[in-house]
C-alpha cells in the first residue's frame, strides 16, 4: 500500500531551498520545511500471510499489538479486609499471562517489548483533509521571488502571520498549490505603469486554480549598496526591468549616469550584490531587502511616480462562496465562436452594460491553440484572397458577485456568444486604503 510521509529535514538540509522547477537552482535559504513523498512497501510480512510492510517494522508492530492484547489476572491471594493504605495496594498487582504461561515471579512479570518506531506511517484523519484556517495563520503561501521581494510583502498583507514559501518562477507557485505544498499563492497580474503581467494570465488559463481575493499595494523603491559605499563609487545599477524603468528619471537626477542591467527580481538583485561583495554596484529593491542582506539605503523612495501600484490575486485549489453583502469582483475568460472574431466583444459588453455592471479590466491574448483564423475575402464581395486574422482569448473583470441575479443573467447571455467560457473566480474587492509612502508592493515579479 502507499503511504504519505512527512520527512523531517536532516541537519544538512536545515537551509531549505525555494520551490523550483526541475531545471532551476535553489537561490536562498528559507524556513524549515518538510518533504512530502509517497512510498510503496512491497515486502511481505513474515508474521502474517499476505501482510505488507518492512520486516523489522512489522515485527515491532506485531509485538506492540500482542502486548496490548495480553490477558491479565490478579495473583491468588487470601481474602483480606478492605484497606485503603499503601500496603493493600502493593498486595494486589497484575501479572501478565503470555501464551498461556503465568509469570509468578517478578522477573517473569516483566515483558520486554521493543516499542514500535514513531516514524511509522499514520493513517490520514479528518484533520488532515480539513480546510486551512481562513484567517491566514499557519497558511503556507507561495510567492515568486526571494525573501525581501515585494511579492512577499503582498503575501503578508493578504495572509498575516502566514508561512511564506518563495518560488523561483511563477509556474512553480502554481504547482506548489496544486501539489499541496502550499495552501495559497499570491501573484501579481497588473501594474499601474507596466500594465498586465501576461505570463500570469496565461498560467491562469493553463492551471485550474481559483482566484479567491486580491491585494493592491504601492511600489516604494530604494537604492541599496554595500555598507560604506558612496554614490560616486557606483558604475552600474541592477534590478528588475520594470523597477529600472520606474526609477529612470530619479536616477538621472541623482547624478547616476551609470549602466543599468536587468535582473530577475529586485530582492534577488540585492542578494546578488551582497553575496558577491560588489562595491561598484547598487540594486533597486525594498527597504526590507536592505535589512535582510545587510545593505545600506543610499536613497529612499526613488520611484518616479508615487502612484505606482501593483495588483495581486490570491489563488487557491477551491473557490470561495460568493456573497452579495459586500463589494465583489468576478474574473472570466472566454473565446469567440468561429468567424465572429472580435465582433463578439461588442455583444459581451452589451450584456454587462444593459444590467449596469461596471467593467474594471479587458485584456486580450492570442489564442494559444488557434492563433490564426483564415477567412475567404471573396465571400464578402471584395478581391479574392485569404485573410489571416488573430484569434483572441479575452479576460474580463467586472464589479459584481456571482451571487447577484444580474451577474448570473449577464454570464448566461455571454455564453451564447462564446465557444469557450470559464469563471476564474468571484472574490471580495480590496477596499483597504493605502498610502504611497513607505509601503511595499510589486511590479511583476520584482
Element layout with pairings:
Layout: E1 2-7, E2 35-40, H1 55-68, E3 71-74, H2 86-91, E4 94-98, E5 101-102, H3 126-129, E6 140-144, H4 150-158, E7 163-167, H5 170-178, E8 184-191, E9 195-196, H6 198-206, E10 210-218, E11 222-225, E12 236-239, H7 241-246, H8 248-253, E13 259-262, H9 266-276, E14 281-285, H10 287-293, E15 296-300, E16 309-316, E17 328-336, H11 343-353, E18 359-366, E19 372-376, E20 386-390, E21 392-398, H12 405-416, E22 418-428
Organism: Canna indica
EC number: 4.2.1.91
Main location: plastid
Descriptive overview:
By secondary structure, this protein is α+β, with helices and mostly antiparallel strands. Among the domains are: 81 residues, D-Maltodextrin-Binding Protein, domain 2 (3-Layer(aba) Sandwich); 101 residues, Alpha-Beta Plaits (2-Layer Sandwich), CATH 3.30.70.260. Helix content is 23%, strand content 28%. It is built from 12 helices and 22 strands. The chain is elongated. The two termini are 44 Å apart. The N terminus and C terminus are likely disordered.
Short précis:
The protein is of the alpha+beta class and 446 residues long. It has helices at residues 55-68, 86-91, 126-129, 150-158, 170-178, 198-206, 241-246, 248-253, 266-276, 287-293, 343-353, 405-416, and strands spanning 2-7, 35-40, 71-74, 94-98, 101-102, 140-144, 163-167, 184-191, 195-196, 210-218, 222-225, 236-239, 259-262, 281-285, 296-300, 309-316, 328-336, 359-366, 372-376, 386-390, 392-398, 418-428. Among the domains are: 222-302, Periplasmic binding protein-like II (D-Maltodextrin-Binding Protein, domain 2); 328-428, Alpha-Beta Plaits (2-Layer Sandwich), CATH 3.30.70.260.
